[in-house]
Amino acid sequence: MNAIFSLIGACSTKYHYVTQTAASILHLLHKYEHLPVHLAEAVAYAEKKYHDGSLALALIREIGRLNPKDYARDGMGADNVGKFLVELAEHMPRLVTTNVGVLMPHFGGESYKIRSALISVFGKLVSKASKETDVNAASETSRLRSKQAMIDVMMERSRDTSAYTRSKVLQTWAELCEEHALSIGLWNQVADMAAGRLEDKAAIVRKSALQLLTTLLQFNPFGPQLRTAAFEATLEKYKTQLESMTSQNPANEVAEATQPNSDLEQSQGSGAVQGLGHEGVFSETEQAPGSLQITSEPTREDTTESQMVDQTQSCLQTSDVGGIEQTRALVASLEAGLYFTKCIASTMSILVQLLASSNASDVEYTIQLLMCARQFNIDGAESCLQKMLPLIFSQERAIHDAVETAFYTIYVKKNPFETAMNLINLTMEASIGDLASMEEILRTLVRKGDISQNAIVALWDFFTFNAPGATVEQSRGALVVLSMVAKSSPKILSSHLQNVVDIGFGRWAKEDMLLARTACNILQQLSGDTYSSLLSSHKVFNNLVNVILSSGLPEESWYAAAEQAINAVYVLHPMPEDFSAKILRKFYSSAFNSSGLQIDEQKSAESSISVISLSRFLFLVGHIALKQFVYIESCVRKIRRQRTDKERAAAESQGSLDCEPDSSMHKEENISDELGVAASEDARIDILQERAEKDIVSGGQSGKYLIGVCAPLVAKVARNVSLLQEYPMLQCSVMLALSKLMVLDEEFCEQHLQLLFTVAQNAQDDTVRSNCIIALGDLTVRFPNLLEPWTEHIYARLHDQAQSVRKNAVLVLSHLILNDMMKVKGHITEMTLRLEDEDLSISNSVKLFFHELSKKGNNPIYNLLPDILSRLSNMRDLQQEKFNNIMQFLIGSIKKDKQMEGLIEKLCHRFVGSTDPRQWQNIAYCLSQLTFTDKGIKKLADQFKCYEHALAMDAVVTHFKAIISKAKKFVKAEVKVTIDEFEQKVIECHEERKEQEATMQNALSHLAAQVQSEELLGTDASNEQSEDTGHGPHNCYKDSVEGNDLSEGANNIKMSEDNCVQHSIEEVADSCNKSELSNESNQHVDDSVDVSQSELDVPSTLQVMKEDPDASSTVENSKNYNCKDQEADSAGEVQEGASSDEIDVSSNNDDSDKDKTLTENAAAGDSNQVGDQDWNKRVLRENVKPKTVSHTKTRAAQKDVKTVKPVSRPRRRCVLEKQVNP
User: Fold this and answer.
1) Kindly report the CA angle at 549 between 547 and 552, in degrees rounded to 5?
2) Residue 1006 and residue 987: Cα distance in Å, rounded?
3) Contact between 336 and 178 (Cβ < 8 Å)
4) Distance (Å, rounded) from C-alpha 133 to C-alpha 130?
């Protein structure tokens, strides 16, 4: 190999074939993927042997001169060239550093492989530069500048468009950290960058960010304990010391400030924090081993917060700190350490979200980071690790194994005492889900033998108070852990049963409210014939009865203990139904001191003991009934299993005999008979089971069944609203009992179903409403046909004010829908509103529900989405931002291209059936959230007629422009022409619609001004007639006070109206004068009416109306009926009882021909009436179109105005009438 390398070097350097050799090497690089490493070694060998780097320089420059677009088309060539450059930087760092600038244009290319390779090259060069030191100051400055420039590029490339390049940047920083080439000045910058990349959309980038943060923690220069409180305390101490030193020695401060701190600069260049000298707190010789060996030195779990702070402070403090400059450097280092700890602690919320990621790598590396953070005592790491426990139920094997390994490493792989202590601490304040997860993990570890016998002994010592410093809470926690272990290994209880009875049911149970419940729970693991004699010898059942009948337990703990005691009775006792009946009778006789089941409500209201006893009794009735139902099912399964085993044994024995022809024929003949016998046996068992289940509640009518006798009592108490409102605990118990009885019997359920829904809606206690919604879920599974009409009321609980009720409603509905117990209908819209719930846990649960729903069948969300869109759009109180978030999430669950294309067509057709602009905007937004393929774009363009009318809205056009801009980035070149045409079509339609809208508004303003002017003229004529005292039917009221007051009021209203409309009339007149209309006026106004010059200009508009006969007749009719209405109403106010037909407007008026025509038309009849704004629009389109169209700019607008047809005109009240009438 060296001979070939020597030959290549000789040809290129000694014989000056540099250009030819470089071209040949590049050709080989692009063609063969196994040569990059060897060719780089050959180039480096030539430079080392002949002391001539011309070949390497020529290759670098030739690669730099290549067009970056060539590498975008040649993927293998880009990959090989990248590998070659990385190897060349490894062997010849100085030469590559000097000439790396010629490679910078490739950062702007499209090939992510070249960009990723250049990042690796920069990482190699920065690592080499951090370890080298030049004596020459100029070369040292140049080296540092080059290094800083490459670091800046690497920081910038963390936001590269390619996820592969971003991932390579993070991996390169991790390598620099492992090689101790990362200075303390860059530590926090890199940590911030990695923390920001945790939310990257690419999984490989998130994985690299998690690995980088883990590496930063392992190699951190700040110490083995990174608690924020410890750093803050130490930093405050040294800041005070620095201030005192500064105030005492100001002269020394100035002197030391002028001296160059070469040691600090050297430490920053080399990546170690050595600038503090031999007395510094972060010397390299102490830091590196401590950081790497922290995994072998775990901290004790029982260390208190103050002890952790003192321990961390002792690691940070120094025995003696020198001058003021060193103290200042120490303060700066402490500030950097504090910033780093806060940066890592701030990522805990993001890490919790990554634990719920669907990507296995996210979960796996998040668990590793949390384990490392816990070892360094990062704030919040312990609580985050506990949230990983439910992931043990994940179907991903990698996630399951990662959780199991982390649990074993953190909590179990210790000495026996620490293992027991860790497991006990986990049970403290753990939720039901955490306990179930912990039980599953321990079951797996016990099966593998990872839980040692010594650890189990230590747990028994804690339970029996033999461990030093054991408390009652720790005793209960040890018993919880032992019950989990006993499910996989029940034999551990055989020698400690007496301890369980004595401690679990003794005096300690009064101190710890949950100890008795835990003792009952662990006894349930002793089921089977093997332990029957053991249980009888210890009189376990007597202790269970004492737990139920005892009044010494607190109210909060009695229910939990009694529930587990009854469960233990039905698991362990050979005749649980008889034993439970005895318990129920004893409890009733001891609590109520009566042989009958009569409850004195007055006494219950006065005595709290009676109410408590009644509450406990009802709880026992409901729970015993439910356990009896479960017991019957277990007995039926046992019978079926015994019969199956018997038949299998008979078949095996028959098969062992010699098969004779006659016997085989006989067997074939009897197959049908045997099947018939088996079927009849199953039917008989089913009938017996159904009868036994029904007799639990309905058997009380015959007086033979105790639960049936108590059922009417439960129903009676449940209907006593006043009593339940006074005692919430009684309401909880009775509603639980009622719900359990309803589950057992369909007839009983139907009778009290309305009561249950009423309580679920109106109960004051949140717990009662939560229990009711859970019971409704069970009833839906049990009697689906009975609950189907009440589906809407179940969904209504999603709007409950209490967070617990909404959460339970979400969980119940999710369970019912995902398990096909409830059909998905339009009510699902109520569930979508919970996506924007103020409680984050509810929002996450709903998101998980829709994520799982999208996996069922052919994605039901696809069919539900249009209906959800319509229902949400009709909710006027729903904010636009919330609507957008909901629809964006739902549309994101649709992945198939065919469904996307079908959804485009469905949404476009929604434009046709909608006239609401808000719904247009919502539909357009949903279209903008879809992923458009080539077919999708064509289908959207083909449906243009469906949404053409909606393009007048700016918001709709904005969404369509967003669709077009997004489609241009991904569609093929041949489709871009279609997109351009579609874009032009949308813009033109939008502009055309806007012009039509502007024309319509202009026309309406003209029409409004014209109607006002006509009303003004009609008011003048009416006032003139009322002022005429010589003629008319109103003369008889001339001298009356009321008539005079009314006349004066009418005149005042007329004058005020003239003043109000004067400005609008002037505007109309000016607008009409600018048009091509005639300025002549044929109107005659009586001299008695005072008309201003601006009012005399109004008839220019009226003259336009006369040019069209239809228009003039319509306007005259409108004036006639308008004036008639005015006069009729005025006459009705002046003369009571007189009809409008008796008013003679033209009796003694000296008006023009037009006024006479108005009067004649008013007396003719009221077959035509003038409406309000709708009539104004129709009059405009009928009569004003010759002159209105002259103001328009496009033919489309003219066409739109002409095609509208008039409709019937409603009556219109005049202005005078509205103002006079109170």
Assistant:
1) 70
2) 29
3) no
4) 8
Gyration radius of the chain over CA positions:
45
Q: What pLDDT is stored for residue 250 in this prediction?
A: 56
**pLDDT at position 345, please?**
92
Q: Calculate what percentage of the chain has a pLDDT beyond 70.
A: 71
Contacts of 637 (CB under 8 A, 6+ apart): none
Identity of the residue numbered 212:
L
Contact residues for 596 (Cβ-Cβ < 8 A; gap 6+): none
Which residue, among 258, 231, 256, 253, has the nearest Cα to 242 in the 3D structure? 253
Angle 1049-1050-1053 (CA atoms, 0-180°, nearest 5)? 85
pLDDT in tens, 736-748: 999 999 999 889 9
Give the dihedral of Cα atoms 101, 107, 108, 112; nearest 10 deg: 150
CA distance 369 to 914: 53
Cα distance between residue 390 and residue 409, in whole Å: 17
Say which residues have a Cβ less than 8 Å from residue 68's Cβ, sequence separation at least 6: 105, 106, 108, 109, 110, 111, 114
Contact by Cβ (8 Å): 570, 630 = yes
Instruction: Specify whether the CB–CB gap between 1160 and 1200 falls below 8 A.
Output: no
- Rounded to 10 degrees, the C-alpha dihedral 50/52/53/56 comes to -50
CB-based contacts of 1196: which residues, under 8 Å, 6+ apart? 992, 995, 996
Q: Is 491 exposed, middle or buried (0-12, 13-18, 19+ CB in 10 A)?
A: exposed
CA distances from 690 to 696, 747, 748 (A): 10, 14, 15
Q: C-alpha distances in angstroms, 10 versus 47, 561, 1002, 1042?
A: 10, 91, 89, 128
What values do phi and psi take at 826, rounded to 5? -65, -20
Structure tokens at 360: 């296995």
Please give the single-letter amino acid code of residue 568.
Answer: A
- pLDDT tens for 664-713 read 544 544 554 555 556 677 788 888 888 888 888 877 555 567 888 888 88
Report the pLDDT value the prediction gives residue 657, as an integer from 0 to 100. 54
- 1044's tokens: 């005079």
The model's pLDDT over 350-399, given as tens digits with 9 standing for 90+, comes to 999 999 888 889 999 999 999 999 999 898 888 888 888 899 988 888 89
Compute φ and ψ for 181, nearest 5 degrees.
Answer: -105, 10
Q: Which amino acid is at 1019?
A: T
Q: Residue 469 and residue 417: Cα distance in Å, rounded?
A: 12
How confident is the model over 1077-1086, as a mean pLDDT?
37
H or E, element range at 369: helix 360-375
Give the up-direction half-sphere exposure of residue 104: CA atoms within 13 A in the CB hemisphere.
Answer: 11
Q: What is the pLDDT of residue 656?
A: 60
Residue 196 has pLDDT above 80, yes or no: yes
Query: Which tokens belong to 1145?
Result: 């407007």
- Among candidates 421, 427, 384, 436, which has minimal Cα distance to 406? 384
On whether the pTM is more than 0.90, the answer is no
Question: From CA 407, how far away is CA 371, in angstroms rounded?
Answer: 10
Q: How far apart are CA 78 and CA 66, in angstroms?
A: 11
342 pLDDT above the threshold of 80: yes
Q: Which residues lie below 8 Å from residue 117, measured CB to CB, with a gap of 6+? A: 78, 81, 82, 83, 85, 86
3-state class percentages of the chain: helix first, strand second, coil last, to nearest 5:
80, 0, 20
What's the N-to-C CA distance of the chain in angstroms?
113
- Per-residue confidence (pLDDT) for residue 703, from 0 to 100: 56
Burial class (CB within 10 angstroms; exposed 0-12, middle 13-18, buried 19+) of 352: middle
d(CA 356, CA 405): 18
pLDDT at 1186: 37
Q: Are 840 and 879 in contact (CB under 8 A)?
A: no
The answer to whether the CB of 615 falls within 8 A of the CB of 704 is: no
